[in-house]
Design goal:
six-stranded antiparallel sheet, Alpha-Beta Plaits, 4 helices, alpha+beta, two-stranded antiparallel sheet
Amino acid sequence: MTAAYIALGGNLGDPRRQLLDAVDALARLPSTRLLRRSRLYRTPPWGMLEQPPFINAAALLDTGLAPHDLLDALLAIEQRAGRVRAERNGPRTLDLDLLHMEGVRLDDERLTLPHPRIAERAFVLLPLADLVPDLLLPGQGRVADLLATVDTQGCECLAE
């Protein structure tokens, strides 16, 4: 079994409900246990700024799935939630990103682990710090230290 860290986000429809439903779906994945989820955060949009704010969270799983199998499972959960990949950084019903798997470094055409842009994104670091502030991400640093370097203005904890 391997610890896997998942970022969750969405800003269309009922993003709070969609994130909670996605967490339930993560808990039902084969060979996987949901260990914890972060609080929910309302965060400003990233990249494409003319869109509604996002609701974001993170989940910690203990999984026997291989990285690409877990990625495929995440994409299937997104699809069931009505995710349409129309434009990069655009609005979405649900976005699930595999951020990191303990002991796994990977860089191929489908997946890079750890996720290469974690250190740039408050909407990922805030919920991840709820779960594991001392997590050391290879090549990037410790989550709490990374969080101290990003702009969290406009981010609000929804205390759930």
